[in-house]
Write a structure and sequence with these properties.
The protein is an alpha/beta fold and about 350 residues long. Helices cover about 45% and strands about 10% of the residues.
Length: about 350
């Protein structure tokens, strides 16, 4: 590996105490005119967990696992971490890398899909951080959306199988699979991914859901969404996961396994929308529910990152890169995933209609 090349984990960031919550939410919504009274409502979801989002701790765990896997794979790259909305900020990390003499960076974002908020905005954040770091800022290569990689699919298949096994004896075989992801405005979904390639956000999610279900030997599943926000007049992707669970119960479902394929780690949306809200809905309906784990530090997921970094650091199309699909090069280009015109639609982290 070139000695002036580094690895960069790029993530969303999250508060790590009650005093962080409101400043964090103001960072997320900066420039959108969201009043503090609205943010205070969302903050309550964080306060329910002591004001701590799990995402930063999970990023630290992931970095530790990556460093171990890099060493086992003879990848000698320094490892850095920068967030979009909370410490360590991406701008600060970029400046540190420049000061350390890093010239080239392989960046991996904790978001597997194509849309403005899950891909293009990270590219924009990287460009802004490089501009602030000045002429010594390293060149950055962002690994494209990786939702099709077998390591990503396999980690969810394993987690879903474990969730099924945790259900009461005799009902796992009949349990319904509900795959979930963060909802986005329909207009943002329509502009996600390269035009004309069939790689829009909902289609990507459906592809992953189908592959995971097939890996479990299932041919029946549903796709639902969580964390809808913004004014009711703006259409967002649906159905909501709670409505989906209610419909399944009415149809005579005996149990449900919720698989959060839209998330790499247990964001607040997973903890609140699924572990609190969806679990409450299922409990009130008398429907046994299990929630599959997110990839986190699953060995298949970590090995995927290592293999992709190895390919991109070497500048070659290797097996890991090929596994991203035939149109991988088109997935991250100048005009992909829209221009961010929908970012004022009201997206907020924090779960349950935040």
């Amino acid at each position: 590996m070139p000695r002036d090349t580094a690895f960069l984990l790029v993530s969303f960031g999250g508060p790590e105490g009650r005093d962080d919550v409101m400043p964090f939410l103001r960072n997320v919504t900066a420039g959108r005119g969201v009043p503090d009274r609205r943010l205070a409502e969302v903050a309550e979801h964080y306060y329910e967990f002591g004001g701590v989002s799990p995402i930063n701790a999970q990023c630290r765990d992931l970095l530790d696992a990556i460093e171990i896997d890099f060493a086992a794979s003879a990848i000698d790259l320094p490892v850095y971490w920068g967030n979009r909305n909370w410490t360590p900020y991406l701008t600060d990390t970029m400046a540190t890398m420049a000061a350390d003499g890093v010239k080239r960076v392989i960046a991996f974002a904790t978001s597997a899909y194509s849309s403005y908020s899950s891909c293009r905005q990270y590219l924009d954040n990287i460009d802004q951080a490089r501009a602030q770091a000045g002429p010594d800022a390293p060149a950055v290569i962002k690994i494209p959306p990786y939702y099709r990689h077998p390591g990503f699919i396999g980690s969810f298949t394993h987690a879903a199988a474990q969730a099924l096994a945790s259900l009461p004896a005799g009902i796992a075989d009949q349990a319904d699979l509900v795959f979930t992801a963060h909802s986005i405005p329909e207009s943002m979904a329509g502009s996600s991914g390269p035009v004309g390639t069939g790689h829009a956000y909902p289609a990507q999610l459906a592809q992953v859901a189908g592959l995971v279900a097939a890996g479990l030997g299932r041919d029946r599943w549903r796709l639902a969404y969580s964390s809808r926000s913004g004014p009711p007049s703006v259409p967002w992707l649906g159905p909501d996961v709670n409505d989906c669970i209610t419909e399944l119960a009415a149809a005579g479902s005996t149990a449900v396994v919720v698989v959060p394929i839209g998330f790499v780690s247990d964001h607040m949306e997973v903890m609140f929308d699924l572990d609190v809200e969806a679990a409450r809905t299922a409990r009130e309906l008398g429907l046994p529910m299990a929630r599959a784990a997110t990839p986190g530090t699953d060995p298949q997921f970590v090995a995927m990152i290592t293999a992709l970094v190895k390919d991109f650091a070497a500048g070659q199309i290797g097996p890991a890169t090929t596994a991203l699909g035939p149109s991988v090069i088109a997935l991250c280009h100048q005009l992909c995933c829209g221009s961010g015109e929908d970012r004022s639609a009201g997206f907020l982290p924090g779960g349950a209609g935040a």
